[in-house]
Amino acid sequence: MRMLDIIEKKKLGQALSGEEIRFFARAAAEKSVPDYQLSALLMAIRLQGMTDEETTELTLAMRDTGDTADLSSIPGIKVDKHSTGGVGDTTTLVLAPLVAACGAPVAKMSGRGLGHTGGTLDKLESIPGMRVTLTEEEFLRQVRETGVAVVGQTGRLAPADKTLYALRDVTSTVDSVPLIVSSILSKKLAAGSDAIVLDVKTGSGALMHTLEDSIRLARTMVQVGTLAGKPTVAMISGMDQPLGTHVGNALEVREAIDILAGRAGGDLKEVSLTLGGHMLVLAGRAGSLPEAEKMLEQALASGAGLRKLKEMIRAQGGDPAVCDDPGLLPQAPVRRTVTCGREGWVRRMDTTALGSAAQAMGAGRTRVDDQIDYAVGFVLRVRLGDRVLPGTPLCELHARTAEDADRAEEAIRAAIEWSGAPCPRGQNFYARITADGVERFRDGMD
Ligand code: URA
Ligand code: CA
Q1: In sequence order, what DSSP letters do the residues of 349-413 get, joined into one string?
Q2: Which of 28, 136, 174, 371 is the most core-located residue (most Cβ within 10 A)?
Q3: If you measure from the C-alpha of residue 176 to the centroid of ligand 1, how many angstroms do you get, rounded to a whole number?
Q4: Residue 290 CA, ligand 2 centroid: distance in Å
Q5: Residues 195-220 pLDDT 10s
C-alpha cells in the first residue's frame, strides 16, 4: 500500500477503506512514513472530512497502535469521564471522590495542561508528595482497595495520536471533527472503561466556539463511542467564563476541597454533580439523573466525598492534611486584590485570554519541558451578568513577583468586557447527546 495513493483518494473526497486507515494509523505510530505525507493526509481529512464509519475505523485503528488497559480485575462497571478542556475546570477532583463514595469505581487516567487549559495531573502534583505515575498493578490495586485513583497514562496508549497531535498542532489541522474524535476516543477506549461521559465545551475558551460545531463534535463522539461498544453520553457545557472561580493548580485544588468540605458552591459544583450523576447512572448505581444527583449531594453533605479524596491522596503518597488545611498547599508570595474601576455589568469574558494570563504567570507551560509554578494564578470574583461598582473586587492575584502581578492584572482587565445595562448570566449546560439524539436546554437544566 502506498501513502501517496491514500492521500490522493482523500484529496478527491473519497472514503478510505478500513485497510487504508489502519495503514495510516500504524505509519503514524511507527513513524514509518515521512511527516510531510502524514501532514498532507491530515490536511486532506481536515478539508474533505470523514464519514462516521471512517472516523470509527480511524479511532479503533489508533487505539490498536498501543496498549489497552485491562480493568477487569476491578469489580463493577467502570465509567470514564473526559472533558475537552477548559479554564478553571476542576470537575475531576470534585466528582471522582464523590462518585467513588457512592460506590462506583473511578479508574481515571488524566492529562497535563495544554496551552491555556489546565490539566488534572498538574493540579494533583501541587499537593505535597502526590504521585501520579503509578504502575498498572499499583493503579488497579488502589482502585480495588479505595475505589478511586487519578493517574497519568499507564502503558503506551494510542501512540499514533502522539505523532498526529504534534503534527496537527503545527499544520493548522486541530479543528477537524474526525481528527479530534479519533484523537480523544482512541485514548479513552484504550483506557479500558466500560462506558464514557463526555463533557464537550462550547464558548470563548473551548476547542469549538459555536454551539452547532460543539454539538456536531459531540454527536460524532457519541456515535463512535457507541459503535465501539461503549455506552457514551455527551453534555455540552459552557466555557464562556472559567468554570470555577479559581484558576491555577494549587488554587483549583483548594476550590475542589472547599466544595467537598461544603464551604463553596457555584457552577463548578453544579457541573460536577451533573457529570458525576451521569457516571452513576451509566455505572448502574442510580436509576435516574435526579436520584444520582441526590446521592452525590448526600455524599457531599456527609463528608464522605472529602474523606474519599483524603484516601486517594494518602494512597498516592500525598499529604491528606491539605483536605483539612488547604493552607498547606503551595502559596504564592505576592497577593493582590484588583478592583473594578467602573459601574456596570459583566458582558463577556475572553476565557482563552484568562487561561493564558494564568499560564503566563507560571501556572501552565509554553513548552512541554517548562516547569510549572503550582502556587500562582488568580481567583476571579465576578461572573457573567454580575453588577459591579467602582471598588467591587474583580480578582485576587497570586503571583511570584510584583511584575507578574502587574502583567496579569492588565491581561485580566483586557479579557473582560463591560456593559452599561444588565446582561445574561452564563449557562452551564446547552445540550445532552445520547445514541438516541440531541436534547437541547434553553435555559440551563434546572
Ligand atoms: N484533546 C485531544 O486529546 N485531542 C484533540 O484532538 C483535541 C483535544
Ligand atoms: Ca443542576
Answers
A1: E-HHHHHHHHIIIIIS-SSTTPPP-TT-EEEE---TT-EE-TT-EEEEEEESSHHHHHHHHHHHH
A2: 28
A3: 10
A4: 9
A5: 999 999 998 878 888 999 999 999 99
Residues with CB under 6 A from ligand 1: 84, 165, 179-180, 183-184, 207
Q: Which domains does the chain have, with CATH numbers?
A: 3-63 (1.20.970.10), 79-324+429-440 (3.40.1030.10), 329-419 (3.90.1170.30)
Nearest to 119 by CA among 381, 439, 370, 419: 370
Q: Where are the alpha helices (DSSP H) in 261-380?
A: 267-282, 289-301, 304-315, 351-358
pTM, rounded to two decimals:
0.94
Among 237, 250, 248, 244, residue whose Cα is nearest residue 266:
244
Q: For residue 18, which phi and psi values (nearest 5 degrees)?
A: -55, -40
Q: Which ligand is nearest to the CA of 217?
A: 1
Q: Which three cell numbers stand for residue 274?
A: 451533573
DSSP tag of 175: S
Among 59, 110, 121, 180, name the best residue to mutate to test ligand 1's pocket (greatest count of ligand atoms within 8 A of Cβ). 180
| Ligand 1 atom 3, closest CA | 184
The CA R_g of the chain, rounded to the nearest whole Å, is 22
In the chain, the largest separation of any two C-alpha atoms, in whole Å, equals 68
Find the 181 Cα to ligand 2 centroid distance in Å: 27
State the cell numbers at 31. Answer: 513513524
Q: pLDDT, tens digit, for every residue of 247-284?
A: 999 999 999 999 999 999 999 999 999 999 999 999 99
User: Residue 116 half-sphere exposure, CB side, CA atoms within 13 Å?
Assistant: 17
Query: What are the φ and ψ backbone dihedral angles of 93, each rounded to 5 degrees?
Result: -70, -20
Ligand sitting nearest the alpha carbon of 168: 1
Query: Which residues are designated catalytic?
Result: 82, 161, 168, 183, 187
